[in-house]
Specification:
The chain is mainly alpha-helical. Helix content is 47%, strand content 6%. Helix 2 links the parallel strand 1 (52-57) and strand 2 (83-88). It binds adenosine-5'-triphosphate and magnesium ion.
Length: 388
């Protein structure tokens, strides 16, 4: 076992530091750690008054800038002050169900990307959904309390069903919002940091929690959605959402030359034919990305001004964007390479996080079973009538 740490390293085998993770407290615990940091332990169980977070990603491929700005950046920031469960939702891949090898491979890919952006498994649990059987059990119970019409009206699900583009949609695709509700309610999470497209699912989860609590007893908090800095990042093709499924993404692991090439080919103002034509900033993906990822505000303001006046070419605007993106991604790529060479650490992060989630799941399911009065066989264990 490599003695490196995820979060507060001291030796030469430490992971390259992440700008994002170091800003969020820098304290961690665990057997890989410098014992001198042990006294600065971050308490992570619910007993310490911290609010709980559950959020997740589907293991369908590498993560991209949309995940980063819409979700991951927020997760890294929040892990310092919350009890976090980050879930790899490998039940919710029915659009890839025919390619299970891809799904298994993507579990590692997602975990690597998480470590690369600075999520710290010594503070936050990395959880594989299907290895916590209680998810399936709770999802089945919850599905009793969800009217069909609520799923049929869910705008995200409706849009995704249309994008699915096949005549035969698996039942599990239609019911994945129920699985998400079970994911969120199982650790009795208070907060769900997600991209904007997931808010209808959080709303549905709140409704399910209310119904369950009202009908039986108060078991679940009503979780709140929390949208990231960029609620919905457009794709490089100008499509409304950067998405793994549409392959219109810049991935966190893309090498610099690939990023530069993708930016060069980006959709921009289609009405502008020459560098001297006045251009449109609004809705222009290149400027939306500058706005989201270029920390040099003066440069962005200058480019916008010159673009509007027809005093700058697309080439320069794109070159500067590629440079800003590569500066953001360089430390992420460096950390990714570090953990890619230490898959034992990735494996342990997943195993330990999943085991922590199972403990929390056990506590919640005891409350659920009690509320549903499921121990009736136990209660009749000593029923003397069998002897009659
Ligand atoms: P797919 O398009 O294949 O469904 P995805 O890219 O949407 O994949 P998910 O696993 O469904 O990935 O989403 C993980 C999290 O990232 C969610 O909180 C989602 O809202 C957020 N997210 C994904 N894409 C974007 C985006 N383009 N902008 C902002 N947030 C995003
Ligand atoms: Mg999605």
């Amino acid at each position: 076992m490599d003695d490196a740490t995820y979060g507060c390293p001291r030796s030469s085998s430490r992971p390259p530091s992440s700008a994002t993770s170091s800003s969020s407290g820098g304290c961690s615990r665990g057997r890989w750690n410098d014992p001198r940091t042990a006294s600065r332990r971050c308490p992570t169980d619910a007993g310490d008054g911290k609010k709980r977070i559950l959020t997740g990603i589907r293991p369908t491929g590498p993560l991209h800038l949309g995940h980063y700005a819409g979700a991951l950046e927020n997760w890294v920031r929040l892990q310092g002050g919350h009890d976090c469960y980050f879930l790899i939702a490998d039940y919710q891949v029915s659009d890839y169900a025919g390619d299970i090898a891809r799904v298994r491979e993507a579990v590692w890919t997602v975990a690597l990307d998480w470590l690369a952006v600075g999520l710290d498994p010594e503070r936050s649990a990395f959880v594989i959904e299907s290895l916590v059987p209680e998810h399936a059990e709770l999802a089945l119970w919850l599905s009793w309390f969800l009217p069909l019409g609520m799923l049929q009206r869910n705008p995200t699900l409706k849009a995704e069903m249309e994008e699915f583009g096949r005549t035969s949609v698996p039942v599990a695709f239609f019911t994945y919002p129920v699985m998400q509700a079970a994911n969120i309610l199982l650790p009795r999470a208070h907060l769900v940091p997600v991209g904007e497209d997931q808010l209808p699912h959080v709303e549905l989860t709140r409704e399910l929690a209310r119904r369950f609590n009202r009908q039986f007893r108060e078991v679940f908090p009503e979780p709140e959605g929390l949208v990231g800095r960029v609620p919905r990042l457009v794709g490089i093709d100008g499509h409304a959402k950067m998405s793994k499924s549409r392959d219109n993404a810049i991935y966190l692991k893309d090498p610099p030359s690939v990023v530069t090439e993708k930016v060069r080919s980006m959709y921009t103002d289609p009405t502008r034919l020459r560098a001297t034509d006045p251009g449109h900033i609004e809705g222009n993906p290149v400027f939306l990305y500058h706005e989201a990822f270029n920390p040099d505000r003066d440069e962005v303001a200058d480019l916008k001004d010159r673009y509007r006046r027809g005093a700058v070419g697309d080439v320069e605007v794109k070159q500067k964007l590629a440079a800003a993106l590569n500066a953001l991604l360089d430390p992420i790529r460096e950390r990714r390479a570090y953990f890619e060479a230490r898959t034992g650490l990735v494996r342990d992060a997943l195993a330990e996080g999943t085991s922590r989630a199972r403990k929390a799941a056990g506590t919640t399911m005891a409350l659920v079973r009690d509320a549903l009065d499921l121990d009736y066989l136990e209660r009749h264990r000593d029923d003397p009538s069998r002897e009659a």
